[in-house]
Structures are given as structure tokens and as C-alpha cells.
Amino acid sequence: MIKLDQFLKLLGIGSTGGQAKLMIIDGDVKVNGTVETRRGRKLAPTDIVTVTGKTFNVGDLI
């Protein structure tokens, strides 16, 4: 399991934890098609994250 903000940093989308946090709070991130505003949301390998118009399968990166 990995937290949503950590996953964004791993992708290089949020270069800092603060930047990732702001993207999540602003509603720019979806998990499994639903806007997610909890930066501590734990992601499972089967989850799909969409941010900045790109979609990522969590299981492919962890």
C-alpha cells in the first residue's frame, strides 16, 4: 500500500509533498474515477489514479 500523495511524488507529478497536497485538495486527482481529496488515502495495486489528464495503474508502479 502507498499513500496518494506519496504516489504522486513517485510519478514525479508533485515534486514536493506540499505540491502533491495542493493538487489533491484542489480536486485535481481522481481515484477510480472519483475525485479524491484525502492525501493520506491508501492506494491498492488495483486502483487507478487520474491526474493532469493522465491515467496511472497503481499496480504498474509499486
Helix/strand layout:
Elements: E1 2-3, H1 4-11, H2 17-25, E2 29-31, E3 34-35, E4 42-43, E5 48-51, E6 54-57, H3 58-61
Helix pairs in contact: 1-2
Briefly characterize the structure.
With 62 residues, this protein is α+β, with helices and mostly antiparallel strands. It has a single domain, classed as RNA-binding S4 domain (Structural Genomics Hypothetical 15.5 Kd Protein In mrcA-pckA Intergenic Region, Chain A), CATH 3.10.290.
Q: Average pLDDT across residues?
A: 90
Q: Name the beta content range.
A: 25-35%
CATH topology name, in short, is Structural Genomics Hypothetical 15.5 Kd Protein In mrcA-pckA Intergenic Region, Chain A
Order of helices and strands: EHHEEEEEH
Radius of gyration: 10 Å
Low-confidence stretches: none
Query: How far apart, in Å, are the first and last alpha carbons?
Result: 8 Å
CATH class group: Alpha Beta
Domain module count = 1
What oligomeric arrangement do these chains adopt? single chain
Shape: globular
CATH homologous superfamily caption: RNA-binding S4 domain
Q: Which structural class is indicated by helix and strand composition?
A: alpha+beta
Largest sheet: 4 strands, antiparallel
Number of strands: 6
Lateral strand order in the biggest sheet: 3-2-5-6
**Which percent range fits the helix content?**
25-40%
Number of helices: 3
CATH architecture: Roll
